[in-house]
Design a protein that fits this description.
It is built from 16 helices and 13 strands. It is of the alpha/beta class. Helix 7 runs parallel beside helix 15.
Length: 399
């Protein structure tokens, strides 16, 4: 097993936009098994020897993603860690989180673990346990070498293992103390739903009367669907999987295949909620958002959602309110943090406190959107949230 440590000057070279972020210092710990064909990269904002708690899921890269232009586990992990650090930032600013995470928020930073497996080692294939053992050994080595605490949660690629009995996250959790197994999708979706609810309320559109368009109906998307059903909200969905489209159609939710994304984006909608696997808000889709006269608000939890960050300006110029998906998706990392800290404290995970925390996002969504509308869209969502909450966040951090 070959290991390499990339320091911040090297990570800047891989992902140049890192240098312009709020916290530009990222380290990458890379492990390679050339014989078995596995590469694992752990990216973190935790400085070596800092004792910080690095939060981020463990992603088993989908096959199609591994063949994307410019892909590497290093750059993927860095970009995802940047997004996680944004989630940490916004949870500090707004003051959202469970009681244990809020107590320790000063030592939590963003990170991510990304592995590129061989075909025979993907979850459900014969060598999946062997690959997970490799990853677990790497996680333990990272903590020793890096001098920080690593916590992993759910991300892409996990599921039932080849033995037909064990879930991959349970396998890791039983062998590595930093693994969180709580279902983060439900609370992530709850945070997304609350942001959506508040943003719509600020525009004067009740959630009962809204027309909501959803992109991606996996675990998170389906939780949002169920929440919206209770209000009788009118929904349409763009979804890649035939079986999930059939399930949605059975609930009388019209669906589109991803091959007709352009047609979907021309449909009447008050809100667009993005929870696909990445890249949904590409230039063409942003232009379609700008051209959709009825569309008012855009939110979601999708990672790596906007390949070109300058497109935020296009949405603002078109008078669309866009809540960054890092902000909308913060409840997932907070759930993993709360589970990990609960285990250290020897107390049960208090999921009710997390549900209550998610409700804070409804208020933030309402207040930030109201401020943006009152300023004739002169501010981004980030600027509005910062203006509303940063002073209180600074006081909380100081105490």
């Amino acid at each position: 097993m070959i290991s390499t440590i990339l320091k911040p000057d090297q990570t800047y070279a891989l992902v140049p936009e890192l240098a312009h972020t709020r916290n530009p210092l990222v380290w990458v710990y890379r492990f390679v098994d050339d014989i078995k064909g596995w590469t694992l990269s752990v990216a973190t904002h935790a400085p070596p020897g800092s004792g910080k708690l690095s939060l981020g899921g463990f992603r088993i890269v989908p096959e199609e993603r591994m063949h994307a232009r410019g892909f590497s586990t290093d750059s993927e992990a860095i970009a995802l860690a940047m997004g996680m650090e944004e989630k940490v930032h916004w949870s500090r600013v707004i003051g959202v989180g469970g009681p244990l995470a809020m107590h320790d928020i000063h030592r939590i930073v963003g990170g991510k673990c990304v592995i590129a497996p061989s075909p025979d080692a993907r979850i459900g294939q014969p060598r999946d346990a062997e690959m997970l053992d490799f990853a677990i050994a790497c996680f333990k080595q990272v903590e020793v070498t890096g001098g920080f605490l690593l916590t992993t949660g759910q991300d892409l690629g996990h599921g039932l293992m080849h033995d037909g009995r064990t879930q991959s996250l349970q396998y890791i959790n039983s062998r590595y103390k930093g693994s969180a197994i709580a279902d983060t999708s439900e609370l992530t979706a709850e945070g997304n739903y609350q942001i959506l609810h508040g943003m719509l309320r600020a525009t004067g559109i009740s959630i009962e009367d809204a027309q909501v368009a959803l992109v991606g109906c996996g675990n998170i998307g389906m939780h949002i669907v169920e929440r919206l059903k209770t209000h009788g909200t009118s929904m349409i969905a763009l979804e890649a999987r035939d079986e999930r489209r059939a399930e949605l159609e059975a609930s009388e939710i019209p669906t589109w295949d991803v091959s007709d994304k352009a047609g979907f984006m021309r449909m009447p909608m008050d809100a667009l909620v993005v929870n696909a696997s990445g890249g949904t808000l590409d230039e063409a889709t942003v232009q379609a958002c700008a051209a959709n006269e009825q569309l008012s608000v855009i939110c979601g939890c999708e990672n790596l959602v906007m390949p070109d960050a300058s497109q935020v300006g296009v949405l603002r110029d078109a008078r669309k309110v866009y809540a960054p998906t890092e902000l909308g998706g913060m409840m997932g990392y907070l759930t993993a943090a709360e589970e990990y800290l609960s285990r250290l404290e020897g107390v049960p995970l208090d999921t009710e406190s997390l549900v209550r925390a998610a409700q804070r996002l409804e208020v933030a969504g309402f207040e930030a959107t109201t401020r943006i509308l009152n300023s004739a869209h002169s501010e981004t969502f980030e600027e509005a949230v910062t203006a509303l909450y940063a002073e209180g966040s600074a006081k909380a951090t100081a105490t």
